[in-house]
Amino acid sequence: MSQTDASAVGQESNPTGETAAAPADGRGTWLRNGLWDNNPGLVQLLGLCPLLAVTTGAVHGLGLGLATVLVMTATNALVSLLRRSLTREIRIAVYVLIIASLVTCVEMIFEAWFPALDRALGIFIALIVTNCAIVARAEAVASRRPPLPAAADGLVMGLGFAWVLVVVGGIRELVGRGTLFADWHLLTGTAAAAADQAATGGGFLLAVLPPGAFLTLALLVAGKNLLDSRRQQPAGSALRSADGIE
């Protein structure tokens, strides 16, 4: 974890730049917050290292996304259970210890059940430990909420990060290789490998190279900002019309 990430997490007020909102704000608002409005990948821009490096294909993004969801959900639940016994001086170290232990468990599960996907993802499963979004949610929400709402927050934030991984990976795979989910056998086993490998196509090589990751993420961020601005325009026009009538 870089010094910038560590300092961001160490801010006691709010490491994610938002209020410690949770399911109490309403189920719809809470879900939209994690999946869209405060998405870790598109808005907070956390966890960019695996997001940019792993997403050469949709299946790779899906695999790392599932691992991140499991770790983030379990971390929030455990931190919430321990929140009353943690002192301010050691809380960040305990968060990292919990995350590292859970990542080790997830990595062992992948090695046992999805060995091909584990080899494809390589070190990036272990690097989930350095994902500042997980520590940030633990500090901003889990340390202040009961276990069930804290775990639910981790689940939604993890799903928000996961769908960005899958979409970025899918776009890069489709543009760069002319296929989509062609590596599905990494999840399902060798029985599906022949059918998956039969799918061939051409594409724009730049998309699967490192610059393609930055360009794809930039386009997604720009698209989200454009949709948000267009969604806010009708509300602003309505307010100006109301002021004019008055």
Low-confidence stretches: 1-25, 192-198
The N- to C-terminal Cα distance equals 54 Å
Q: How many domain modules?
A: 1
| Helix fraction bin | 55-70%
Rg, rounded, reads 20 Å
Summarize the biggest pleated sheet. none
Number of strands: 0
Mean pLDDT: 84
Encode the helix/strand succession as letters.
Answer: HHHHHHHHHHH
Structural class: mainly alpha
User: What percentage of amino acids are in beta strands?
Assistant: under 5%
Shape: globular
Individual helix count: 11
Describe this structure in words.
The structure is a single chain. The protein is about 70% helix and about 0% strand. By secondary structure, it is mainly alpha-helical. It has one domain. Helix 1 runs parallel beside helix 7. It is globular, with a radius of gyration of 20 Å. About 40% of the residues are buried. The N terminus is likely disordered.
